[in-house]
Amino acid sequence: MSETIPPPPSATTGAHMDAEGYAAAYARSLDDPDGFWREEARRLDWVTPPATIANWSFDPVDIRWFEDGVLNLCHNCVDRHLPARADQTAILWEGDEPGVVRRISYAELHVAVVAMALKLKTLGVVKGDRVTLYLPMIPEAAIAMLACARIGVVHSVVFGGFSPEALHGRIEDCGSRVVITADGGMRGGRLVPLKANVDAALERGCGVTSVIVVRHLGNDVPMAEGRDHWADEMAVSGDCPCEPMGAEDPLFILYTSGSTGKPKGVLHTTGGYGVWTASTFHHVFDYREGEIFWCTADVGWVTGHSYVVYGPLANGATSLMFEGVPNHPNVERFWEMVERHEVNIFYTAPTAIRALMREGDDPVTKHDRSSLRLLGSVGEPINPEAWKWYWRTVGDERCAVIDTWWQTETGGVMITTLPGAHGMKPGSAGRPFFGVEPLLVDGDGKLLEGATSGNLCIARSWPGQMRTVYGDHERFVQTYFSTYKGLYFTGDGCRRDEDDYYWITGRVDDVLNVSGHRMGTAEVESALVAHPLVAEAAVVGYPHDIKGTGIYAYVTLNAGEENSEALETELRQQVRKEIGPIASPDIIHVTPALPKTRSGKIMRRILRKIAENDFGSLGDTSTLADPSLVDSLIEGRRNR
Ligand code: WT7
After folding, report:
1. What is the number of other CB atoms lying within 10 angstroms of the CB of residue 217?
2. What is the distance between the alpha carbons of residues 38 and 35, in angstroms, rounded to a whole number?
3. What is the Cα 571 distance to its own chain's centre?
4. For 29, what's the count of Cα atoms within 13 Å in the CB-facing half-sphere?
């Protein structure tokens, strides 16, 4: 039996929902989805409320929610709050340097968003166009996203840690003609040369005609005449009304790694994503009027989209946005900020929790954390040890801890305990959110009942579900709906216990979750083989204390080439250049050959086991073309 910790009084007192409330609402969300989501949709203002609610099929794949409704998400996140909360802080920003703070009220946010939207219009951008955002964690990132939403432009945010090469691929794939960037960003005291990266990306050629450059650091950057515009020098005036959008009109594209090939452009639409983020923010965080909400994710990831920008602002909350990193200038940074800004809800990733746990309790306990009410975790499985430290040391056993499982594809939280309703089990995400019907299936797609383990699928659509892979609907169908016909396959393995709690065990495909960031092994491999001395590469994950999963790269060299430390450095450089620092391998293992079957297929299972230092259960190696290779691989692993 797994340990269950009852929700603390801070979670149950004043909660929107208790256990019975959840059970009733969950049952209704499955029995009467149209009625349930028609009501939840009222969290948003609609120009035309939807008459049709759910209209979807997983075979053939065609997903629509609220399809005849008309709305604008910028209106919902900004304009509609003006009568009641013009002076309330919408975005509370702290820079990389401690105590450098900006407070942007809803009224100021409105002015800034209108101005940015007008600047985009000046450049000839119209409804349906795609605009790429490559920005640091500054308010202008949220402002630019909302400006796009305001005029019906589809934003594609690219994380500032991606290389020019990766940025170029993403700009080209969605055909952006305009890029919004900044003169630079600061992370942990180090400058991120965003504008220079944009210049390098555009040199590779693509259809970009205009770049808007936000002045953030005030440093000199080269400006291309006629192409680049300082945001603060673009004179605009007047109003810019919100464009009425069909519920199924695209809102954004966000690229994410899959098990094969290049990153996929995950497409989310206006109505369903809007309802999902507004509803999950309200229920999952049991959000209460006036609270300060801090999600530490970068807006370059879906967590930042849904829970730094759209979810909190749709609910009229104050969203804290942080430019920096947890260990700059020291490891007290998070808790110092919790104290300074009297944060009520704190939402971060297990990798950060594990890294800070290593530093002991002192950096935490010396700061006043009495404002905290709720602690959240997202991005990867949280090990019980880290969970307990979060619960005891950070939350003083006073704040509920929620572990929220979801994906870029799901738009928002799918599985979690509700703070006021459910007991908590350290290491388990918990129970399905409203409308979510999880199923476990075995490798052949056979449905598994009761307490068991299997592959996690979702049986029916939910409003926040991605609608397609931008420009490649067939890839959408293939990736998510072809493994198990009629079901959405998540790519995750999962255990369900005797209390119907779900325990995510990690990816079962060739996707790695490194520090909560998704990385396709195929992408890292193709970056490695692009090096002139590399013949072949096979990349697998292995357990890593801080990152959760580390990147282990097996590499073979061209005939006659020798391994050296310099070469390993070059290979890491190569991956940083093609993808970005987050994809840099932790271990490079140069080997004379890769284990292959007689038909030439790389046996990844063996490579995974060896990387995991698990030599006892390699399974059947007799089908290998050269079984003796295994000993040399083990020997190589032992030396690392
Ligand atoms: C993958 C999705 C959710 C937004 C951030 C990541 C893993 C995510 C959890 C969790 C166990 C988790 C899964 C999932 N994952 N949250 N609470 N417990 N695993 O979004 O980059 O699309 O990655 O992250 O493996 O499939 P993403």
Report:
1. 18
2. 5
3. 27
4. 20
> Which pair of structure tokens corresponds to residue 185?
């960003």
Contact 223, 213 (CB under 8 A): yes
Protein residues whose CB sits closer than 6 Å to any atom of ligand 1: 256, 302-303, 378-381, 403-408, 429, 490-492, 504, 506-507, 513, 516, 518
| Residue list, annotated binding site for ATP | 379-381, 403-408, 492, 507, 518
The contacts of residue 124 (CB under 8 Å, 6+ apart) are: none
* 597-637 residue pLDDT tens: 888 899 999 999 999 999 988 888 888 888 889 999 999 99
Q: Is the pTM of this model over 0.95?
A: yes
Q: What 3-state DSSP class applies to 249?
A: coil
Task: Assess contact for 134 and 181: CB atoms under 8 A.
Answer: yes
Residues 149-184 as b/e (b if ≥16 CB within 10 A, e otherwise) read bbbbbbbbbbbbbbbbbbbbbbbbbbebbbbbbbbb
Buried/exposed 564-602: b ≥16 CB within 10 Å, e otherwise? eeebbeebbebbbebbbebbbbbebbbbeebbbeeeeeb
CA distances 35 to 29, 30, 64, 413, 438, Å, are: 8, 10, 16, 21, 21
Q: Which two tokens stand for residue 275?
A: 């309802």
Candidate of 268, 513, 514 to mutate for ligand 1, largest count of ligand atoms within 8 Å of Cβ: 513
134 CB-near residues (< 8 Å, 6+ apart) = 157, 158, 160, 167, 179, 180, 181, 194, 197, 198
Q: 120: helix, coil or strand?
A: helix
> How distant, in Å, are the alpha carbons of 59, 383, 536, 583, 637 from that of 524?
33, 26, 12, 7, 20
pLDDT, tens digit, 9 for 90 and up, residues 286-333: 999 999 999 999 999 999 999 999 999 999 999 999 999 999 999 999
- Residue carrying the six token digits 């020798």: 562
ipTM here? 0.99
| Binding-site positions | 187-190, 303, 327, 379-381, 403-408, 492, 507, 515, 518, 529, 531, 534, 576
Domains of the chain: 9-106+245-496 (3.40.50.12780), 515-636 (3.30.300.30)
**Cα–Cα–Cα angle for 482, 449, 411, rounded to 5 degrees:** 50
